[in-house]
Design brief:
- The chain has 1212 residues and is α+β, with helices and mostly antiparallel strands.
- Among the domains are: 7-165 and 320-365, no CATH class; 169-307, no CATH class; 487-551, no CATH class; 557-610, no CATH class; 633-729 and 836-865, no CATH class.
- Helix content is 39%, strand content 14%.
- The strands form eleven sheets. Strands 22, 26, 30, 31, 32, 33, 34 and 35 form an eight-stranded mixed sheet that branches.
- Residues 812-826 have a biased composition (Pro residues).
Amino acid sequence: MAGKPGKTAPRLLQDLLSYDPRFEERAKRNLLTSAPPHHDPDAPPTAAVPLRNCRHNFLNKEEQSLLPRPGEEPDHATVYKVASYCSRCRYHFDVVVDHRDNGERNDPCRRNNREFPLHHFLFQGEDGRDEHALGGFQTKPRTFRFSCSASPCPTDLSIRITPPRLSEQDVRTLTDRAVLRRRWEAAKLRAGDRADTIMARPVDAPDFLNTYLQDSLNPQKGKARIPLLNRKFLKTFGKDCDSILEKVGFTSAVETDDDGSPAHVWYLPKPPPAGHPLDSTEPTQRNLIEDVRYELNTIILDYPEQERLGARHVPMNPQFARHPMERALGCDEYPRVKGRTATRSANHEEDHPYYAGLGAVGDFADELLSFAYRRQMAVDEANAPYYFECLQDLAVGRGSESLQGEVAVLASQGCFKRSEVTFAYRYFDIEPAHAHAINDDHIIGVFRSRLADISQATAQESRRQLQIIGLARGSDTIKQAASDSMETYEQALSYLGMDKGQDDEFIPTMALMKTSENPANKDTVNRAIQIIAEERNSQRLRDYLEHGSMAPAAMDIGEAYAILQVNDRTVYLEPDILASQVQSLIESNPDSIPRIQEALTIVRQDQESRFGKSSDYQMSSTVDYPVETWPVGCCNIGNTCYLNSVLQFLFTIKPLREMVLNCEGNLQKLTPEALETKRVGRMAVSLARAETGQQFVRELRKLFDRMIRARTHNIRPERTLAALALTRGEGVDSVVEPDTVQLGLGEIGGLPVSGPLPPPTKADSAMGDDDAAKAPEHDKKGDNDDAKSDTSTTAMDLTDSLNVPAGATPSVPEPPSRPPPIPPRPQASADQGFKKVEEVARQQDAAEILNNVFDLLSCAFEGESTLRDGEQLDLIKKLFFSDVTTVRVTNGKRASKSDLQDNVHVSTKDRDRTLCAALDDEFGSTELEGDMIKFELFEEAAPIQIINVRRLQYENGRPRKDESHLALDKVLYLDRYLKKTKTLSEEQLQALRDDQWRLQSELRRLDERRRTLKETDFEKLDLPSVLEETAAWVETAQTEMPNLFSDSIKTESNGLASQLGQRAEELRPEISELHGHMDKLEHEIDAVFENCKDHPYRLHAIFIHAGSHSGGHYWIYIYDFQNNIWRSYNDETVKEETEETIFRKVQRVHPPTSTGIVYVRADVVDEYTQAVCRNPETKDVEMKDAEAASGQVINMDTEFGNIEVLDGVPKE
């Protein structure tokens, strides 16, 4: 059973609750039978269960089940069957648990068994899957087979999943009003005056069919025959339901009527008598009819009660099937962690991925987590590092002393986690990401190359690290090399630094190298040659051992590669490159053509044997854009991904860029007289504020100049620029220049000392505090490293399990005899200063930075004139600021107030919608107290419109991110938001707004109802879900805690769980209907202005954020109007992007969402935007030795001590 991970019974049941075969093909894995992907703590979190999957609500099919009784223990002949169906998707699930003895396996797992308290199931195979059938494997029953991995346990498990007996097309045929109307019209033509005068209701066909099937299960004389011309039957079923009737067992016949005319009739199905649930492995016709009745019961109850008046249907109230499943699987009363009384609901929450990795669930008590770890190790040793990591980090996350003690014992026994494998590779200077492409011999060669120059103690540590790599790779060769023994052919080759493909000719050379390094190696070398000679049956090697020489041999593979001047024969050679190499050799060595051609033939054969033919093997490649025609990227200098996005956007605004590049002639004079009347942002501009703005402009000019002239694909912004953009205040006289800070280890005797820096401390990290705490030690970067800004949080803090300093072994080593010397770090004071700036950065988003940048630019430049309230008019105001009028209407009287705004805020309101719909809310009519109505409009719209999306929301006092999708149009028409347009007067526009507001009022009413159903005091639970959970609790309490209720309460609560569940099912479709009505209303609202297209704006840029409310990562998409392409600017990487990627809705946990959208007026896009402005330097720069720094490093703690932080919410 080795090599195949399993799942404990609670884990398997939890996965079954959310497994949806309809979407398996799109998910590319079977949630039920496959192990979850290994969790990467550094990657963005992803949902374990796709959002589209049905969260099943299992109801028991009593007639087909053989259920365990409460408290019953299985014996040697016990078989349980829990037949159920989902009331949401109508799939059927038959769970059969077979405890019967199987040879020596005769002791089932049970809760009082200390070694095996729970079943641990391994997937054994699948029956019934037909991927080539029409519709794939979604339309056929499938059976998944599992067995318990415990050696004494005989338990086998099969899960049969059957699609709905009535397809969606069947349901539409039975219930669609348009189809029913056509059927009624056909009935009137067929039966004439005998036809019914009233059309059948949608509920009638399911109701009648259910009655017929009930009669077939309980046959009575006189009820088996239905004439086709029966008025109700004809209008309800007609002829187009024949296939449905035949599918469930109805038969038709033509009989002679009393008057001699032919009569078409239907006969009810004739199912066999009820049998034992285990009599047949395949469903009988009776089971089929029972299944259809359960589905019809669900369909009928989906209709509102008023639409079911007069129906014959008597509601069936099947019991929930989850608890019988738990009892059958022996996991109904397992020990749970303190504070958890029930298994986490798969409907609404997900455990941390490490639980799934162990095949466990989040409510397991510590001893069960330990059990799950042991079982996974027993069946899947190859993934031992991952399972140890899961247990170790969960032990720390839980704060469990017992689990942490067990982890310590396991570590002392040689267990290790993935980070230790990573460390082991890096110990030998091997990048872990490339480890899969490096063969064992290379790794062993690196190890042996070090042995001659290191101490015995260091050699032992090297062997220990090599042993970890050998265990992780499952390589006996590496493990043997680490143990320093030689017994096998592979060990002998490894010792000599050879592989199996190398010919005997190389062995004397490698033997000579070994003995030259150390003459004491001679005996070991001879032993290795002897082993190789015996394995290859090589007489030439035996002669070499005896006489010290070998006879010449024909050209071998190694010689062929050498002739073609290929140094590494383990890599794939591109055919065209190889051909070019051969042609060059032939031209320079015409006398060696036969030998070169012979070598080429051998090399081609070797390449095909290793990698397949050239058409079957392709090397990956990346697009390398020419620097002359491609924008430059900006490296992240610590939590500044959103600042980079802002800088990239500003660079594409051509007038602004030119103003900054040519700033000196337009800067504000700094005399008291010149500043006396200068006002920016309704505030007087002080001398310090103007100086700060001009310092920012000069730093921005340097950046823009580098973005134009750089010869590389990316550049690194200065910290000074970041500090000024991220802070607001006066008195910033100087900002530290990071490029002038001394780096390295200092000096000794006036000479620089080279070497690696000591491990960075938390304070030295370029990431925020949270990031520094959470990132693995080997991934933390110092101030000179580029770091992606990722401040997202995880489900629990599982990364501090070992506080291992960088450069140390992350296991449990013995303490060193003395600490290593740590040289001074002269840049620390500057680091502390920028640390404060980074902390400010973590609390801001792109919108706040953009507002601050606009203020700095306006403060720096001289104004052209003044606006109302003395506000300075300048290029920033002309480009980005709109004149927005707020109108308040009270008792028919209008009062207006205008204000300058550089952006518009919109909300998605927790549902997917279009940008126009969100803008309609902002500019639409709002009712205030005192019968006052308020709305807004553009008095004059800026040519560049910035629209910010409110993503941060508060629910029950807790912040969260609204992750709804905002659909964007490539062209946005602002006509509806303007005071007047080119073709419509103010009065005409107002008339259209009145029509729009009427529809918006209805939309708000529907939205209020939607919020009532969607928002509850329970996180992530809507009202139907709350009712379902309450129903489940009531059912559990009545069954398992009967003493909780008095007799009077028991009487009143009878049927309560069923009623709650029924009400939940009634409310759930209402939510879906509300969404549909609201979408329709928004389309109608949008259609009001469908002919208003005088003022088009084109989409230019989209700010994107991926993460949660507490952190994440920013990038920006920018459209190049000159070259008609989109690009993604993701810190240092700029690449072309497709519209499909940009505009699609991403289905995942914490998906990327737009936080800012920029539109540019269509008539000025070429004048105001230019995405590419490059003129790379071509002249080589002369390299000179840097002069010794004469001054001291500026202390940013002092310089930035009084900076006022921009107000804002935590960065999304």
